[in-house]
From TrEMBL:
SUPFAM superfamilies: ARM repeat (SSF48371). This is HEAT repeat domain-containing protein. Keywords: Membrane, Transmembrane, Transmembrane helix. The chain crosses the membrane at residues 20-46. The keyword Transmembrane applies. The keyword Transmembrane helix applies.
């Protein structure tokens, strides 16, 4: 040991005699080697921990899944103590190691058996295995990733906890934690779940998807009126999100608020309002959309074409003909051609007429639209609508050709 210390002392004395540039170079080499070694150790530790967790989940998941599902779907009512005793008998005492597999496995069971969330046995599983207490404790961890996962698990398992546990995180300086906690607050709060909608929340696409899931999971039967946030919010992204929610949940009472946003200065907000009116099939606004079509930017024009397709009143084929003839963009022409193709008998008849008269690239557009292998949101919408009404696009094709050829249909 003394020899090693003597060597270090000799090296340090020798280093001080080197030129300053050499000293700096040696320092950076030493620093780089130390940083690289530290990084490799951290990576190794993280990978080892991940492999350990995956091994635990892989070994226990099938058995825990069957155990939890059998209790959940059982016609017999189990108490909290009975669930705990059965779990201990099969898997041993509840430990941190057990929860590594238990929580994600329970999430999978809940995803498969959503209709059982209100059952007595589900409450017995949650309380008997202390799921809610375990997740609440993880909200107090310093590791942000652990807290994010805890919020996500609380939401997926449809668990409610005290506001005092969530609120501190909803004002966190960490943007990811703040957004996730506010999203989870909508689902897991016992008091004022929508309070943060009165503020600007800087919502990106992923945040919007997460919030929509919260509404579907927890508030589908008790939705707030979104129009108040549409009217009083100054955040464009938040306004567009609430417009989408109005359309998704079909809130007819918000139609007047949507109509006001047809004149909004922002093209993107105006586009969302147009699409929402279309998806809600507000036929009283169809003429207004047609009148404003030729004064709108391209994204709003395309939205109006889509809205006409969603409304599907059968009265706008003349407008669609004019829009198709005046379209200068190939993408717009394709969209209008698809809407004409899907626009009932009159639309299909005009589409067939175009197929006989168009040439070159326009004819390729029509062939593209007709191809049943090429799916689109509009095609899927109309196909699902036709299935509900008991006929298909093939039936429309046959009837159109019969009308064109003036051949009487053959009755079976």
């Amino acid at each position: 040991m003394n020899d090693f210390l003597d060597y270090i002392e000799h090296f340090w004395i020798s280093l001080s005699s080197f030129p300053f540039v050499i000293q700096i170079a040696i320092f950076f080499i030493f620093f780089s080697c130390t940083a690289t070694f530290t990084f490799m150790v951290v990576v190794f530790a993280v990978r080892r921990e991940k492999a350990r967790r995956e091994k635990i989940v892989r070994e226990l998941r099938p058995r825990i899944f069957s155990f939890l599902r059998n209790i959940l779907i059982s016609k017999d009512a189990y108490s909290e103590d009975e669930v705990l005793d059965m779990f201990v008998e099969n898997f041993g005492n509840l430990t941190k190691k057990t929860y590594i597999s238990l929580i994600p496995t329970l999430e999978d069971v809940v995803k498969q058996e959503k209709h059982q969330l209100e059952s007595h046995n589900y409450d017995s599983i949650i309380r008997g295995l202390n799921i809610d207490e375990y997740l609440e404790k993880r909200l107090d961890f310093s590791n942000t990733r652990i807290r994010l996962r805890a919020f996500q698990s609380l939401s997926r398992l449809d668990l409610t906890i005290s506001d005092s546990k969530i609120l501190p995180h909803t004002y966190s300086k960490n943007a990811s934690l703040r957004k996730e906690s506010r999203s989870s607050y909508v689902g897991v709060s016992n008091n004022e779940p929508f309070k943060f909608f009165d503020q600007d929340n800087d919502l990106n696409q992923w945040d919007q998807i997460s919030l929509l899931q919260q509404f579907v999971l927890h508030h589908k039967d008790n939705l707030p009126n979104f129009s108040k946030w549409i009217k009083y919010s100054d955040d464009e992204e938040q306004i567009k999100f609430f417009i989408k929610l109005v359309a998704y949940f079909g809130q007819d009472t918000s139609v007047d608020s949507l109509s006001e946003y047809l004149e909004h200065p922002s093209h993107s907000v105006r586009r969302e309002a147009i699409l929402a009116i279309g998806k809600m099939q507000v036929k009283s606004k169809e003429n207004k959309l047609i009148k404003m079509y030729f004064t709108q930017p391209l994204i709003c024009q395309n939205a109006i074409i889509e809205a006409i397709s969603y409304i599907d009143s059968g009265k706008s084929i003349g407008f669609l003909k004019t829009a198709y003839e005046m379209a200068s963009s190939h993408d717009t022409k394709k969209l209008i051609a698809e809407v004409i193709y899907l626009y009932g008998k009159s639309g299909r008849a005009y589409f067939e007429e175009l197929s006989r008269t168009e040439t070159g690239f326009n004819l390729l557009i029509l062939e593209h639209v007709k191809n049943p292998l090429i799916q689109s949101s509009l095609r899927n919408h109309h196909e699902s609508k036709q299935k509900k009404e008991g006929y298909s696009m093939v039936d429309v094709d046959i009837k159109t050709k019969i009308n064109q050829e003036n051949i009487p249909p053959i009755n079976p």
